[in-house]
Amino acid sequence: MVIPFHVREMLQRIKARFDADQIPQQMAPNDAEFSTLRPSRRPTKEMVARFWDKLKPTASDEDQAQIADSATIEAAESYSANIENFIGTVKLPVGVIGPLRLNGMNANGDFHVPLATTEAALVASYARGAYVATRSGGISTAVLYEGVLRTPAFVFESLLKAGQFVDWVVTNVDILKSAAEATTRHGKLISLEPFIDTNVVFLICRYTTGDAAGQNMVTIATDALCHAITERCPVTIENWYIEGNFSGDKKASALGLVTGRGRKVSASVTLPADIVEKTLGTTVEAMLAYGRVANLGAHLSGQFGAQAHYANGLAAFYIATGQDAACVAESAMGVTRMEPRNGDLFCSVTLPNILVGSVGGGTGLPSQAAALNLLGLRGNGCGTALAEVAAATCLCGEISIVAAIAAGHFTRAHESLARQR
Question: PROSITE patterns from the xrefs (predicted)?
Answer without folding.
Answer: HMG_COA_REDUCTASE_2, HMG_COA_REDUCTASE_4
